[in-house]
Design a protein that fits this description.
Layout: H1 2-37, H2 40-71, E1 101-102, E2 105-106, H3 113-126, H4 130-136, E3 139-141, E4 147-151, E5 164-170, E6 174-182, E7 185-193, E8 203-205, E9 207-216
Antiparallel strand pairs: 1-2, 3-8, 4-5, 5-6, 6-7, 7-9
Helix pairs in contact: 1-2, 2-3
Amino acid sequence: MNYLLILAIPLLIYALIAIAGFIYALFRIPSATYQAFKSRGLGVKLVVKWFLLFWVGLVVEVTAFFIGWAVVLFADHQDGRLPYGFTWMETPDALLPGYPNVQGFNTPAPVDWWAWYRQSVCWLARNRAYRFSSEKMGVYLYNNDTVISYGDTSISDNVPIKYGSYVSVGTYCFECEAIFKFAGRVWAIRLGYKMRQVSGKAGYVQHVLRVLCVAKV
């Protein structure tokens, strides 16, 4: 019972953050799409779609979290690919064992099979169902798709940290991101789709809801 409670609390918090994000986006995004495309209905449609997909993604992420340790046993140690039927768990631009030094994931480069296995399991737990959330739940943006941003899109949660916020809207997706100080720490919140990552080029924009404690102030 205690184990179930330990698992349920983070999921409940995550769901509450999603609901709060949905309410915020439902007020903010229709205004942005009206300003950009003269359509509030477009913004409502984008936000509702994102929110419904969140629950699908939550189930998939939980599944990926619990089966990752077993799937890695059958991964290709040479090229870092997962076995057929489980490639939806991969991070396309960072195959196993993942990056040794990124936010929230700091480990030495693996020197033997056991170290490789441990880091790979941790990487799949960190980037849960990444390909699924990008290619199945995400949106493919083309070079000529119109994306309009309001706010400071140069904000960064990497050192040197740059605080601020912005909203980006297109005809197929939206993105909200903010970096701020709270309780002596630096926080980064992003919801919608990772549009900034593919700005100016074609590619999938990942369906995302992420809250990160980046650093102490």
